[in-house]
Amino acid sequence: MFSDTHFHFEHSVQRGADGTAALCAMAEQDCFFALDVGTKCDDLPARQSSVEAAIAQMPDERLAARAREFMRFTAGIWPDVNAIHERDNHLARLQKMIASASCDDKTLHRKIVALGECGIDHHWNPDGVDGRREDDFDQKTYTGERELFEAQLDLARRLSLPVIVHSRDAFADTMDCIKNVGYDNGIIHCYSYGIDEARAFLDRGWYIAFGGAVTYNKKARLEAVQNLLRFIPADRLLCETDSPYLAPVPMRGTVNTPANVKYVYDFIAATLGCTPAALSDTVDKNIRRIFKL
Predict the structure, then answer these.
(1) Model-level pTM?
(2) Is the peptide bond preceding residue 250 cis, with omega within 30 degrees of 0?
(3) Which of 115, 185, 199, 287 has the fewest beta carbons closer than 10 A?
(4) What element of type H or E holds 75?
């Protein structure tokens, strides 16, 4: 029933029993599609191994088979400072890894269906998991971040793959890079901007994905978020979790899992005046379109 357009198993909290439990829950919900998203130039083999190990521990073979059917992978480089400074090397390793993975098409669930996540991040949070410091972003780093993003947009175009775009506190730079490359095919994930920015992305053909943070809104912001959700055309809307981060209400403050996407569906469906099942059908159609399933 539920689709989850973005979740991670590469983080340690999603390995072992936690990963198996998440996959079991998704299979039991009759999940149509789940995407394990890359952030490092060479993390795909480890992520695939983690997912395989989690599936192998599932006690029900029927559910395990279903998990293998709905699992998909991406490969990409998140713009951490080291990746920005070593971008030529990281990009070469990314291309080599994608080429190697493309040669192994024995099982559908190993297929890379998108490039990313990649993008621009100017949210300064030195105490956060990404250690983002404004002082680290001198002109060389700022320019390098844009070059890393544009190179991946260009790679996606050459591979005819959609792109999973990470954009946080960086709308102008994100849009500028997209315009420079001229490749408009993919998802603005964990969307965190307003209606005007959404219109700009939508006008160029992008899909908009909402995660657990959409449920966090205090009363003062609730109307603006509801108006934003109603503004997004049904054929461009996606739901996600970005686990293990940003667990939705009522699970906020806990380790997020892909199964929590149901709360995102509940919130968005209530805002749009439809049932979660109807919203899921809409999202499934959008997923089939963007990922050519």
Answers:
(1) 0.92
(2) yes
(3) 199
(4) strand 71-75
